[in-house]
Design brief:
The chain is built from six helices and two strands, in the order ααααββαα. It has 162 residues and is mainly alpha-helical. It has a two-stranded antiparallel sheet with strand order 1-2. Strand 1 and strand 2 form a beta hairpin. The radius of gyration is 20 Å and the shape is globular.
């Protein structure tokens, strides 16, 4: 295992600002969970279900949970009125889980607020500066995706070696 450096070098104001946004995103997410009375896993499941119905096995895979754990998540979402179970449209022996429209609308209203806030910032930004910010964000996201994939591959290798 690699030794952790005692200090991090090369931290720029850009990195600090990006870290602040990431941290604030986590805080906003925590408050959204509180508002909707959901734990982290249930909120993550609901976010996936808002994109479209899924079977419990698909949900388990997407959340990196066991099927039993995903079934418990679905049970909690159904019990709290955030989701419903329905027969699979092609295979009546299976079920799919769908986010209820009221929960979807509630979450989307908050996402719309964030979109509006970004729009306000961009309204006061030149096209050239906005394009530079977009390039920075897209390149940073690409590097972070590669880092995530590398971490996942290393974790898989370590798990296999253990």
């Amino acid at each position: 295992m690699a030794e952790m450096p005692s200090t991090i070098t090369g931290v720029t104001e850009h990195a600090r600002a990006l870290r602040r946004i990431v941290h604030l995103h986590g805080e906003v997410r925590a408050q959204m969970r509180r508002l909707m009375d959901l734990n982290e896993t249930d909120y993550a499941a609901l976010a996936l279900l808002m994109r479209g119905p899924m079977g419990p096995t698909e949900l388990a895979r997407a959340l990196h949970l066991s099927t039993a754990s995903a079934t418990a998540v679905v049970g909690r979402l159904v019990a709290t009125g955030h989701a419903v179970r329905e027969p699979h449209p092609e295979d009546r022996r299976r079920t799919v889980v769908r986010a209820v429209e009221s929960s979807r609308e509630r979450a989307m209203a908050e996402v719309q607020r964030m979109v509006g806030l970004v729009g306000e910032v961009l309204a006061d930004t030149s096209e050239e500066d906005a394009a530079a910010v977009l390039r920075f964000l897209e390149r940073t996201a690409g590097h972070m995706e590669a880092w995530r994939d590398d971490l996942a591959a290393r974790a898989d290798r370590e798990k296999t070696a253990a």
